[in-house]
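Study both lines:
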Amino acid sequence: MTCYFRHLQRFFKKAGIEVTRENKREIDRVIHNLVGVEYKNCSATWREVKRRITDDEEGFVSKLKETLTKHMQD
């Protein structure tokens, strides 16, 4: 789980997301859902996240922030 989180610290910071021990698993689930990859498939998720960051970094960060904010409010 969350094998790619260390690579996303800069993007979490840009999105204003604080990753804690308590919310890490839920953020992981949200990211898997956001990129359309089955939960716990870390390698495929990281590939898709990298692709999206390469294609549109600001769009990815914005969508990540929007999705996590909405999810945490539910």
